[in-house]
Write a structure and sequence with these properties.
Length: about 325
């Protein structure tokens, strides 16, 4: 791609996201969600590497599905992914009552006790459901969230997402282009008073660990486990998914469910590396339930399984977005 073409693409991306923040908030709820359903349908019809990867990932975790059922699941997954975008664009304008009415939380008793003491907790999350809505709920009911963000291109889009997350009291540590992100996480954890939530079901650093995910080997980041082991902060896994909401509740007909695990402790003796690997396997097991039972809420448009990672490298799979179905996935809130 020439510099001129790249600048033009970047401009379209920036304008698209700015349009989302300014216009989508002003639309009636039903119209906004209908618009993003349409975007999802267009993305699936156009196909592209992101859609192909989503279908491949779904095939691995739902091997019993027929081709027609798998096609239907991919359509549901893209609608779910676009629902996340719609809510992200509209989230800063929602009231506290709207946020609380759109979230159902289970298994949070021990985390509430942790919050009451002003201590920090580490939470392993996946690319599931709406992490941003969960973080906004946490800021009002538990503690603010600190996370690590991939630095998107163009930079203006990254800054737009950082500003958005900070508007809902989420502290962002950039993965690249700043100081050592792990040192930043250590400082935040030791300071207390925050949940350190890291989306670690995809290994971005090539320093992760292999786990079993629904019968397949996958690579996940070990950061949450190492952070917990080094600081003594308890580690939890949280599965997040969408489900239809009762009348008069939720957003766009759906609500976000957050289900925390019990505090996770190593089941093995030995080195920090061995303990971290065991903890991440426990996290994978917790997430696997939601991935299997609520597959369309798993917005994984990138390689995660070892067999796929070993395949010849090509252009990275793009994740569909309102600006472009080949844009980089805006996982600013879906931390590494």
């Amino acid at each position: 791609m020439t510099d001129l073409a790249r600048r033009a693409t970047d401009t379209v991306s920036v304008l698209g996201f700015r349009l989302g923040w300014s216009v989508v908030r002003a639309l009636p709820e039903r119209a906004a969600y209908a618009l993003f359903d349409r975007v999802a349908a267009i993305a699936v019809r156009r196909g592209g590497k992101g859609i192909v990867r989503l279908r491949s990932n779904y095939r691995r975790v739902r091997p019993e599905l027929s081709e027609a059922d798998l096609d239907a699941l991919v359509r549901q997954g893209m609608r779910s992914y676009m629902r996340y975008y719609c809510e992200a664009f509209r989230l800063p304008s929602l009231t506290r009552a709207q946020v609380d009415g759109a979230v159902v939380v289970r298994g949070d008793a021990e985390i509430r006790e942790l919050c009451a003491r002003g201590e920090a907790g580490v939470v392993f999350v996946g690319h599931l459901g709406n992490f941003d809505l969960a973080a906004a709920w946490s800021a009002g009911n538990l503690m603010p969230v600190t996370t690590v963000a991939e630095r998107l291109k163009p930079e203006e889009v990254f800054q737009e997402f950082v500003a958005f997350r900070r508007s809902i009291d989420m502290d962002i540590i950039p993965l690249t282009g700043g100081g050592d992100p792990f040192h930043g996480l250590l400082d935040a954890t030791r300071a207390g008073g925050r949940l350190i939530a890291l989306a670690a079901d995809r290994d971005l650093t090539n320093g992760g660990v292999e786990v079993d995910l629904l019968g397949h080997r996958a690579r996940m980041a070990k950061g949450p486990a190492v952070l917990s082991l080094m600081t003594g902060a308890p580690l939890y896994a949280a599965r997040i998914w969408y489900e239809p909401a009762p009348a008069g509740t939720g957003l766009g007909g759906h609500r976000t469910v957050i289900e925390f695990s019990d505090p996770l402790v190593p089941r093995v003796e030995g080195t920090t590396a061995a303990k971290a690997a065991d903890l991440i396997q426990q996290c994978a097991d917790h997430l696997a339930v939601a991935i299997r039972e609520h597959t369309s809420s798993w917005h994984m448009l990138q390689r995660v399984f070892v067999d796929d990672l070993a395949a010849p490298a090509g252009p990275s799979a793009g994740a569909a977005s309102p600006a472009s179905v080949e844009a980089s996935t805006p996982t600013t809130g879906r931390a590494t």
